[in-house]
Amino acid sequence: MPPEFNFFQHWYPLSPVEDLDPKRPTPVTLLGLRLVIWKPSSSETYRAFLDQCPHRLAPLSEGRVDEKTGNLMCSYHGWQFDEQGTCTKVPQAENPQLVANQQKNLCAIALPCCQENDLLWVWLDTNSAELAAATPRPISPKVDASKGFVWSSFVRDLDYDWQTLVENVADPSHVPFAHHGIQGNRERATPILLKIEQSTLNLIEATTPGRFSTTITFEPPCRLEYAISFGDKGKELGLVTYCIPVAPGKSRIVAQFPRNFAKTVFQLTPRWWDHINNRNLVLEGDMILLQQQEYFLQQRQQVESWKTAYKLPTSADRLVIEFRNWFDKYCEGKLPWREVGLSTPDTRKLNDNREEVLDRYKQHTQHCSSCRGALKRVQRLQKVLLGYFVLTISGVALMPDALRLSLGLPLMTVALLGLAAFTWLKIWLEPRFYFVDYIHAER
């Protein structure tokens, strides 16, 4: 009997739209399927294709958007495809009618996709386009400017599996400890009374009472949202996460952070600054823990169930238990990797290279338009400051003695300040786009 939950007939957000480059194709992997995102010159919206040219299966993500036609061109032999995936050009065709006569056989595989709430959404099952059109995206009601909310977005690839990601986000009790000093304080940790309000195939909802009443919603396969209310003041804060299954042992998180207060602070804080000082640190506080937790759980599951491998005695564990039971009941405790031709090892390999596990550049910076742009500006400014310092030192050295005090001294002062700024950029700021080690014992 097949699993009740079909992972392929759901909407997934691949990326914040603002992080996509309209001038070049972008590769992305979802449920083991390699996809390419691109934007036709004549369209306001992006398209998602299977990342294979029908000619010889070369990756379309290595192609380009042709300046003349606005279509996606394969870089291997120059075949072109319009926004529907229809082949429009085969440079090798001896007969101009070849393309028109065999058009159905020469198409790239286009997936249903759309843009909503600043995210690009894709539906993986090409045979259920009508169902896709009738199925609403799992969006948050708080990501709505008309209700007074503002929000920012964030994306990062993670070195652990989808089920580990969902389980972690569904566990609020780890925050004061794993994220001490960033989002929590271990000295103030208290018991969390979690109550499961409902649990079905398509929705799990839990609540916590208290000063900051919280509703936690899991809408499979990806939306996991925290809606937090601050008493009777009408202040609301949200954590909207989309947990994306990428490949065995790999996942992606796309997150939005809506709120209806402190809007001025939000508007004045650069997106990239929030990412390097807050959002990335939160995920890095989990990364080493979860990668090793997943490794040990997979080892234990060869001989026993998670129900005995884990010890879950408190109310704070209830949502984790509910998710694991849902995964067992409706998905047989596994993702559909075999359906896309992927084999899964009994246990993952444990990566002890912290620079790889916590690689900010590969996991986030290269995907984020704000951080990519900030990094380029930081590197460019370093060159300017260093060049100014060298030129100033050389210029002052050649000045007549009479000018060195009156003109040379102010120039040297500015140059030294510039050198100090260069040092800060080089030693402190630039590395935060690449790698920051997260050592819990030092926090």
Descriptive keywords:
18 strands, Rieske Iron-sulfur Protein, 12 helices, alpha+beta, Naphthalene 1,2-dioxygenase Alpha Subunit, Chain A, domain 1, transmembrane, 2 iron, 2 sulfur cluster binding, Rieske 2Fe-2S domain-containing protein, oxidoreductase, 443 residues, iron-sulfur, 4-stranded antiparallel β-sheet
Describe what you observe in this structure.
- The chain is of the alpha+beta class and 443 residues long.
- The protein has three domains: 11-134, 3-layer Sandwich (Rieske Iron-sulfur Protein), CATH 2.102.10.10; 145-356, Naphthalene 1,2-dioxygenase Alpha Subunit, Chain A, domain 1 (Alpha-Beta Complex), CATH 3.90.380; 371-442.
- The protein has twelve helices and 18 strands.
- It has helices at residues 97-101, 129-134, 162-169, 175-178, 263-268, 271-300, 306-309, 318-331, 354-357, 360-363, 369-398, 401-429; strands at 11-16, 26-30, 33-38, 47-50, 64-65, 72-73, 80-81, 87-89, 110-111, 113-116, 119-123, 153-158, 195-199, 204-208, 212-219, 223-230, 235-247, 250-256.
- The strands form four sheets. The protein has a seven-stranded antiparallel sheet with strand order 12-18-17-16-15-14-13. The chain has a four-stranded antiparallel sheet with strand order 2-3-4-9, with no helix packed on it.
- Strand 2 (26-30) and strand 3 form a beta hairpin.
- Helix 3 runs antiparallel to helix 8 and helix 11 packs antiparallel against helix 12.
- The chain is globular and about 95 Å long.
- The relative contact order is 0.12.
- The model has no long low-confidence stretch (mean pLDDT 93).
- The chain crosses the membrane at residues 409-429.
- GO terms for molecular function: 2 iron, 2 sulfur cluster binding; chlorophyllide a oxygenase activity; metal ion binding; oxidoreductase activity, acting on paired donors, with incorporation or reduction of molecular oxygen.
